[in-house]
Amino acid sequence: MKTKIIYLAFAILIVNSCKGNIKYSKKEHLTVQQTQKFSLKSVQQSDTLLNNIEQKINQAFAKGTINQTDSDLASLEEELLSVNSKKKNTIITYWYSYSIYYHSILLMIHKDLKKSEKVLDDGIEKLEGIDQKNSEHFALLALMESFSIQFSSGIKIPFISANVKKNAEKAIELDSLNLRAYYVLGSNDFYTPAQYGGGKKAENYFKKAIQLNSQSVKNPYLPSWGKNSAYELLIRSYINKGQFSEAKKYFQEAIALFPNDYMINQLASKLINH
């Protein structure tokens, strides 16, 4: 789990906005577009806090990692809560919980385990409290639940893992084009020990994730995370199995799309002699 935390930390330090593209059917695209436009209906152009909010959170996390402080993330979360106290917008709740997720990772890096668990529980509670969750809510909830496993006793872990799977699958049911749902399913399987049935489905989930667009509908208020991480773990899964030709193939794809991604670049040293 410590290794997973380190991966997550450095993966956010350098953010690259390159996105791959695939063709959607007109029906698929329209369904997702209508759903996401509905979720954006109460967001106003004057809500500058939400403009490129994902990047703002990533930058606050990177700054906190370097300066060893969580003040920037805490400030963002306070702003989001303040705005949401008036609007009760589920997109704002989403970004609050997304910030909380990285806040928890940051506190873990700084070895404040009790506070890390506490803030993570708060973010999960906020997401669970949304009455009409969309695909993105379920995908993020699954990701946060997966991270929470490290704080749980052994007897609870299988139940949390099952919940991760259930919520990620619900995200796919609501939006089959949501790469983040496939990434979370893959990540959950990748980090599940083989003796508990892990490692059998991760490859297919990651390959599905990298085929999808980072956003079904381009909008600065909506999430775009996940594709670079799906590439990274896909390559690692091939390296772990000694399938270096496949690892090199996807490394070349990944580095073309995300040339500045720290974690993907780190994989080069594992491939150079194979």
Q: Which series of helices and strands comes N to C? A: HHHHHHHHHHHHHH
Please compute the radius of gyration using only Cα atoms.
18 Å
Overall number of domains = 1
Overall body shape = globular
Q: N-to-C terminal Cα separation, in Å?
A: 27 Å
- Note the main sheet: none
Describe the protein's architecture and organization.
The protein has a single domain (2-271), classed as Serine Threonine Protein Phosphatase 5, Tetratricopeptide repeat, CATH 1.25.40. It has helices at residues 2-13, 26-39, 53-67, 71-87, 90-109, 113-128, 135-148, 157-174, 179-190, 202-211, 227-240, 244-257, 262-266, 268-271. Helix content is 68%, strand content 0%. The protein has 274 residues and is mostly helical.
Name some characteristics of this structure.
274 residues; mainly alpha; Serine Threonine Protein Phosphatase 5, Tetratricopeptide repeat; 14 helices; 0% strand; globular
